[in-house]
């Protein structure tokens, strides 16, 4: 089943710049898709359309058969988005409060909020940090907290915008492990990235964007040789003619 | 990393942790007001009770003293201001400046009363989750028809959350400017302008990002209400605190 269907999507910003141009994309439920492209290629703009943070100038987006603009709250619950800057995404004064923020916005019963917070903190491995202040967490922990806050809303699709930016090696491994485990548990994963080295080994599909358009779409193994033409660095192993290994192996 | 203050919530299971936040807020007001009327004997009782409550809640005298390290500086200023400005019989004299017996007593009394207020505040903050304080603010503002209580409570919690982040940002910006020789510029207005403008720009950018992130998590003012429940132990504690305050005021 296609969980995301994008037809003829275009977006023009208020200043007249064309952000996206005639995007057509369908994403099957449970797949792991990487959206790659250099800075300004339209990756984040595309992702923000999936939960209605931006609305199309032309075209439509359907989530599980329902148009996003018909019910924005439902779209935002279905598509959880983890932003590039975790610090700006965390709103709670404590780890617990931050994870509870989403479920409270969904007007859930207090016990249900508690259940979801406990479950999410367990999944992201932050149970012992419940009363910790978010600004005292490490970069990797903050990113995991941002993921936890999204998971508490029980989304079907998880969207990550540059999830490894400004993380050290252990932080990258923590977040990558989390993303893979969420994919294994049945979530549809979309990762926007310009550096594919860290994540490409786990993806089912690679979509390349340039100047607001989808220019390539296919299996990662088929597209790796063409990356440099679109301003994306080809992973080292691929340059040497080898299979790209996982960062977790 | 920036720490807002030593006055932070510390998780625990003490009696104070278990009390309803609205009652604790009321105790804070009652005890603070009573301390203004109290004299050394009553202040001793209040100090002992508060320190015992804090030890029960926080578990260490060291952490209480640590929280007080900046307050002591303020208290020293207040003490000397009182001691040197109150007329009376001089104890220490140096040229035109003299410390009087009455001034010394007044200084100690004022500082002691302030210590009681700060101790009560510390007991409140260290045993109450920030989300509970937010809920209490929302509850207190609810009866006022034209005040958006939920919005104010959310803004308040965002301020608490973001002050350390802004401090971090300010320090980072100041370090970056020092690395480029801003120390050589002696004009404070120039330096303030060079620090303030980028800091404000980055703070507003962060606020924009925050608004988008909140929207992505379905933020609305119609949210799950915080649960505040008054139980028998809260009323019992209120009775004890009122009796104590009356005893001190009458005494």
Largest sheet of chain B: 2 strands, antiparallel
Largest beta sheet of chain A, briefly? 6 strands, mixed
Order of helices and strands of chain B: HHHHHEEHHHHH
Give the helix tally of chain A.
9
Roughly what is the average pLDDT of chain A, rounded to an integer? 92
State the low-pLDDT regions of chain B, or none: none
Secondary-structure map:
The complex is a heterodimer of chains A (about 250) and B (about 250).
Chain A: E1 2-12, E2 18-28, E3 32-36, H1 43-50, E4 58-63, E5 66-67, H2 72-78, E6 79-82, H3 86-89, H4 95-105, H5 110-123, H6 139-151, E7 157-161, H7 169-184, E8 188-193, E9 205-210, E10 213-218, H8 220-223, H9 236-239
Parallel strand pairs in A: 3-8, 3-9, 6-7, 7-8
Antiparallel strand pairs in A: 1-2, 1-4, 4-5, 9-10
Helix pairs in contact in A: 4-5, 4-6, 5-6, 6-7
Chain B: H1 15-18, H2 21-35, H3 40-58, H4 61-67, H5 69-85, E1 90-94, E2 97-100, H6 101-126, H7 130-141, H8 149-178, H9 188-216, H10 232-250
Helix pairs in contact in B: 2-6, 2-10, 3-6, 5-6, 7-8, 8-9
Provide keyphrases for this structure.
heterodimer, A: 249 residues, alpha/beta, Rossmann fold, 6-stranded mixed sheet, 4-stranded antiparallel sheet, 9 helices, globular, B: 251 residues, mainly alpha, two-stranded antiparallel ribbon, 10 helices, 2 strands, 71% helix
Q: What is this structure, in a nutshell?
A:
The complex is a heterodimer of chains A (249) and B (251). By secondary structure, chain A is α/β, with parallel strands linked by helices.
Please explain how this structure is put together.
Chain A is of the alpha/beta class and 249 residues long. Chain A contains nine helices and ten strands. Chain A has helices spanning 43-50, 72-78, 86-89, 95-105, 110-123, 139-151, 169-184, 220-223, 236-239, and strands at 2-12, 18-28, 32-36, 58-63, 66-67, 79-82, 157-161, 188-193, 205-210, 213-218. In chain A, a hairpin with a 2-residue loop joins strand 9 and strand 10. The model of chain A has no long low-confidence stretch (mean pLDDT 92). In chain B, helix 5 packs antiparallel against helix 6, helix 7 (130-141) packs across helix 8 (149-178) and helix 8 (149-178) crosses helix 9. Chain B is flat, with a radius of gyration of 23 Å. Chain A binds chain B through residues 48, 51, 53, 73, 76-77, 81, 83, 85, 87-94, 96-97, 100-110, 113, 130-131, 133-136, 149-150, 153, and chain B through 1-3, 8-11, 129-131, 157-158, 160-161, 164-165, 168, 206, 209-210, 212-220, 222-224, 227.
């Amino acid at each position: 089943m296609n969980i995301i269907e994008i037809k003829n999507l275009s977006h023009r910003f208020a200043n007249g710049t064309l952000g996206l141009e005639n995007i057509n994309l369908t994403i099957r439920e449970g797949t792991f898709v990487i959206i790659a492209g250099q800075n300004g290629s339209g990756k984040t703009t595309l992702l923000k359309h999936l939960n209605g943070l931006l609305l199309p100038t032309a075209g439509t987006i359907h989530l599980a058969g329902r148009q996003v603009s018909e019910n924005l709250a439902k779209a935002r619950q279905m598509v959880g988005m983890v932003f590039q800057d975790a610090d700006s995404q965390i709103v709670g004064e404590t780890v617990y409060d931050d994870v509870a923020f989403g479920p409270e916005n969904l007007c859930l019963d207090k016990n249900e909020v508690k259940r979801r917070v406990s479950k999410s903190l367990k999944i992201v491995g932050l149970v012992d940090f419940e009363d910790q202040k978010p600004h005292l967490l490490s970069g990797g922990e903050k990113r995991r907290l941002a993921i936890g806050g999204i998971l508490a809303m029980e989304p079907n699709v998880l969207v990550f915008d540059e999830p490894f930016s400004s993380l050290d090696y252990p932080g990258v491994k923590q977040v990558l492990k989390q993303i893979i485990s969420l994919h294994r548990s049945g979530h549809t994963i979309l990762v926007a990235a310009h550096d594919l080295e860290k994540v490409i080994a786990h993806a089912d599909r690679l979509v390349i964007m340039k100047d607001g358009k989808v220019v390539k779409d296919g299996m990662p193994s088929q597209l790796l040789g063409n990356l440099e033409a679109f301003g994306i660095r080809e992973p080292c192993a691929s340059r040497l003619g080898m299979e790209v290994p996982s960062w977790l192996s | 990393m920036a720490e807002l203050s030593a006055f932070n919530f510390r998780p625990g299971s003490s009696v104070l942790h278990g009390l309803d936040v609205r009652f604790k807020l009321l105790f804070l007001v009652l005890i603070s007001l009573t301390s203004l009327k109290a004299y050394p004997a009553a202040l001793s009782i209040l100090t002992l009770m508060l320190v015992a409550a804090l030890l029960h809640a926080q578990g260490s005298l060291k952490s209480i003293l640590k929280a007080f390290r900046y307050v002591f500086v303020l208290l020293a200023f207040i003490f000397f201001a009182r001691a040197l400005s109150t007329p009376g019989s001089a104890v220490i004299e140096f040229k035109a400046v003299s410390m009087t017996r009455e001034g010394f007593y007044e200084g100690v009394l004022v500082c002691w009363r302030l210590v009681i207020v700060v101790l009560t505040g510390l007991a409140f903050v260290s045993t109450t989750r920030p989300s509970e304080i937010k809920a209490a603010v929302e509850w207190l503002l609810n009866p006022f028809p034209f005040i958006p209580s939920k919005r104010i409570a959310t803004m308040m919690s965002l301020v608490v959350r973001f002050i350390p982040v802004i401090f971090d940002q300010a320090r980072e910006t100041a370090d970056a400017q020092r690395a480029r020789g801003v120390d050589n510029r002696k004009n404070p207005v120039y330096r303030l302008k060079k620090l303030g403008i980028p800091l404000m720009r980055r703070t507003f950018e962060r606020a924009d990002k925050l608004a988008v992130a909140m929207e992505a998590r379905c933020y609305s003012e119609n949210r799950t209400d915080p649960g505040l429940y008054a139980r028998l132990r809260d009323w019992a504690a209120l009775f004890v605190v009122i009796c104590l305050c009356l005893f001190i005021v009458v005494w």
